[in-house]
Amino acid sequence: ARGTEADRLQQDEVGVGSGGSDASLVDVTMMVGDALDEGSSLVRRLERSGHQPVLVDERGIASAAADADLVLLESVGLGSTGIVATVGSLGAAATAHQAGVPVWATSGVGRVLPGRLWEAYLRRLDEDGEPWERDTEVVPLGLIDQVVTPSGLVHASQAALRADCPMAAELLKAFD
């Protein structure tokens, strides 16, 4: 017999404190936004890992963000004023921020750009047409609370100061 709900919760708390790995410790529903039909591949990877994610159609991404406990955005690039992420990320971040839901972004190795390279990247985005016609968009750092980096979790304003993409003239030429 499992005992009462209070007994189970107390056991779970002990499991957390002692490094236990009881899967019932955390109740997490992973909602994957399906902007540009890219979400299904992440859903399949998560399912292969034993998770049961929910695929959220792009029409419902902002509503899902408002109802979430945490919004996690994948950044293509990060700079002094924001991140570049898949379309729909700005709406999700703004909605979550307004609802008091924490917004985190990821930043892999080489994605935090130094000032001049970030500015060149933004100019290049502007040349790609109107903001509502692009596959990516800029999410202001003011909407992001934390950034998950290879070295850990840092405040968004601090992450922008830690450029890890080398400044190379060839990269500026690519954006000019």
Number of helices: 7
Which residues form runs of ≥5 with pLDDT under 50? 1-23
Spatial order of the strands in the main sheet? 6-4-3-5-7-8
Q: Note the main sheet.
A: 6 strands, mixed
Helix and strand pattern: HEHEHEEHEHEEEHH
Percentage of residues assigned to helices: 25-40%
Strand content: 15-25%
- Structural class label: alpha/beta
Radius of gyration: 19 Å
Structure overview:
With 176 residues, the chain is α/β, with parallel strands linked by helices. The protein is built from seven helices and eight strands. The strands form two sheets. It has a six-stranded mixed sheet. It has a two-stranded parallel sheet with strand order 1-2. Helix 3 runs parallel beside helix 4. The N terminus is likely disordered.
What's this model, at a glance?
With 176 residues, the protein is an alpha/beta fold.
